[in-house]
Amino acid sequence: MTTIAYLDQLAASAPGRAYKRDLLTMMELRPGQTVLDIGCGPGTDLADLSDGVASSGTVIGLDHDPVMVDQARVRLAGRTNVEILVGDAHAMPLADDSVDRARTDRMLRHVPDPGRVVAEFRRVARPGAVIAMAEPDWHGLLIDSPAGQGLVRYITTEVIRNPAIGRSLVRLAEQAGLTVRTAAVFCPVIRDLETAEQLFGLRRTLSRAVDAGYLDPADVGSAPFVVSCTLFMVVADAP
């Protein structure tokens, strides 16, 4: 499965739709605002942002991957208020004091310096601007399976650069000079394998964990019945 297909699959799942809806509500979008999606990927959420700021507003999607940006441009071709840029979130190609709202959604877990990315939002933020951030805490991935502990060790050691990023969002926001207004958790309990596969790509990840020596193949035989993971959602204001 490609990364784009996985992102689409996650966004289409019931838990994915639920937390994205909550994050969008927390942003308090208004017509005429300039909103930034940091790490926009293939443009999954840009249409909703476009609707929120209406034709008088501007949506900027930023991603470091040209493949993602190309896909986002194709998908949002009909949205005249959407601009999609290739750029590094650590050094955004945007002017100071140019953004009213911003979001990050499961991208800070991948970057070399999450604190610098949040500080970059502070630089481009207008007074009173708001950023909404959503990140899992991968040490809190719970799987009712003999493979559970080994799989978590594999993910937190080999797959995710910043596996504890969720719990760090409040600290990173405050260190950047932002004021945290909301810190909440979204913690779905998933009991069907299809949804678990949509959210976590369990089958592929299990196979890779076995190949990497984190799991005994014998432990992978029985499918997990319950899966849960804590997603932190933090909203902060720029002074």
How would you explain this protein's 3D organization?
There is one protein chain. 39% of the residues lie in helices and 26% in strands. It contains 9 helices and 8 strands. Strands 1, 2, 3, 4, 5, 6, 7 and 8 form an 8-stranded mixed beta sheet that branches. The longest helix has 14 residues, at 14-27. Helix 5 (114-124) crosses helix 7. Strand 1 (34-38), helix 3 and strand 2 (58-63) form a beta-alpha-beta unit. It is an alpha/beta fold.
Question: What descriptors fit this protein?
Answer:
alpha/beta, 239 residues, single chain
List the helices and strands and how they pair.
Blueprint: H1 3-12, H2 14-27, E1 34-38, H3 46-53, E2 58-63, H4 66-75, E3 82-86, E4 99-105, H5 114-124, E5 125-143, H6 148-159, H7 165-175, E6 179-186, E7 189-190, H8 193-200, H9 202-211, E8 227-237
Parallel strand pairs: 1-2, 1-4, 2-3, 4-5
Antiparallel strand pairs: 5-8, 6-8, 7-8
The proportion of residues in beta strands is 25-35%
Roughly what percent helix? 25-40%
Order of helices and strands: HHEHEHEEHEHHEEHHE
**How many individual helices?**
9
Give a count of the beta strands, DSSP E runs of length 2 or more: 8
What would you say about this model in short?
The protein is α/β, with parallel strands linked by helices and 239 residues long. The protein has nine helices and eight strands.
